[in-house]
Amino acid sequence: MSDVTDMESGTRAPSARQAPGEVPRPMGIGPLGWLRWGWRQLTTMRTALILLFLVALGAVPSSLFPQRGQAPEKVAKYFEDHTTLAPWLDRLSLFDVFAAPWFAAIYILLFVSLAGCVVPRAIKHYQSMRARPPAAPRNLGRLPQSASYETDAPPEDVLAEARALLRRRRFRVDVSDGSASAEKGYLGETGNLLFHLALLALLFALGLGNLFGYRGNVLLSEGKSFANSLSQYDEFEPGRAFGSDELAPFSITMDDFTATYETKGDKRGQATDFHAKLRYRDTPDGREKNWDLRLNHPLKVGGAKLYLLGHGYAPVFTVRDAKGDIAYRDSVPFLPMEPRNLTSEGVIKAPDAEPEQLAFYAILWPTAVASEDGRQIVSAFPGPIRPVVTISSFKGDIGLDSGNPQSVYKLEGIGRTLQPVKGGQKLLEPGETFTLPGNAGSITFDGLREYATLSVNRDPGRLPALVAAVLAVLGVATSFMVRRRRVWVRAGAGRGGRTVVEVGGLTLGNPTPEFDDIVTALRGEEARPGEETEPAGEAESGGEAESGGEAESGGEAEPTKDGPDSEPDSEGPDTEPKE
């Protein structure tokens, strides 16, 4: 009965008594709304900083595990030493971090996040720079910096003077509604945006270099030549979008290599200079040019740069087989066993020797001396003062005929297909020959050459990355040095026909002395530093005399200036025509 009464009287049942089906359900934002929400979250600066941290974190495994692009042999050894762990790490692409899908995803998300954050900010900043300065607030006295004074100049003249003064100080000025609005300091925000845009360009340049560039290492001995082809590189790491047919057809010949060392003191044996004399051609039929290759003095050729990475020794050997025929004659690069005095090791392979193939393992001492106990040979200096080589001989099948690739610095199949020669060990000096027992052949140590390790690097994103880095530094410096400043000047009629001038200032950050200089210039104290203070002093010392004199000469003008408070606006204009 009560329900009927409520309906008849127009009342409504409480919400607690309504059926659940009558409660309106909120509608979802829909797929488009979720996309907008996701885009807003992705383009925030917080997300960009998180992604930047993830990029740095994702690069850490590249320093913990060997990478296929830099050291494939170390990756293979890691698989041999860690048969269980290595396959799982390989599934996560930890042996090729910078080519991993997860690293590419972070990199692309960071790029998109920065672009979506910075580009709209840049557009809004440009619109703000083109817009009129904001109008003056109602109460300028509440601003962090404010001042007021009175003057006899009309409001129009005050505003015109303020406009000229602020423009001379490089403010953007707009005069309207009895006030002048001025603003400057947009360069600070411009620097901030320049930094972020430069960071975006830097990421793009790095990606450009990784896609279309390449990096390779080559070992070049004295008297040897190198043609820029894939087969002549010792190590080659192309970009993702780089093809081997894009290699520039330049060639290089190293005529001489010189290393200079300290000969005295605690730094004895330390290298002081490396110098390689090169001849190169940009194209096969191009003019031959000379170049002195030094550290931090690369050669630019074919769109690539050649850097000097390291050096070592390449002894020259002549190997004759059992028939007396020359089976091998060339220089052999030796790898340093210890970097201080360049004790080095290497192998000599003579697959053309007959009836059995010959191979040798050798150790080179550039400056051979006896150890302190006299039991072994050591190198006392990295320079080739007294080079000595010890030879260990092998014969049999080297394994090159099988077609399997071998390292030029290692002998394969020792003890299986390749057997040591009894009595086949010998110490040789330059020019000496060792005849193998059983007339199996001979080996001659002809002399010593040096080699240089060169890095050939083509990075099309290098110059854009450099420009972006310089702009980023300039942008950061500008954003810290320049701050946004706003100044408002309002002029209106006051008591006695005088003009009341109010000045307010707002600076992003701490206030600056610039506001005080503007107020001083508007009051005229810069142009007339002593003119206002002296009349004020005379009025205090002899005010009565002046009042009397004024009364005698023009007494009617005094009531006009000191008239009632309710009539200053009407009295002021009338006095000018009378005068």
UniProtKB/TrEMBL annotation:
Q: Which first-to-last residue range defines the signal peptide?
A: none
- The transmembrane residues are 48-65, 99-123, 193-214, 463-482
Compositional bias of kind Acidic residues: 532-555, 565-579
| Boundaries of every ResB-like domain copy | 45-510
Annotated region described as Disordered, given as residue ranges: 1-24, 524-579
User: How would you describe this protein's topology in the membrane?
Assistant: Multi-pass membrane protein
Which UniProt keywords are listed? Cytochrome c-type biogenesis, Membrane, Transmembrane, Transmembrane helix
Q: Where found?
A: Membrane
Name the domain of life this protein comes from. Answer: Bacteria
Q: What is this protein called?
A: Cytochrome c biogenesis protein ResB
Organism of derivation = Actinomadura graeca
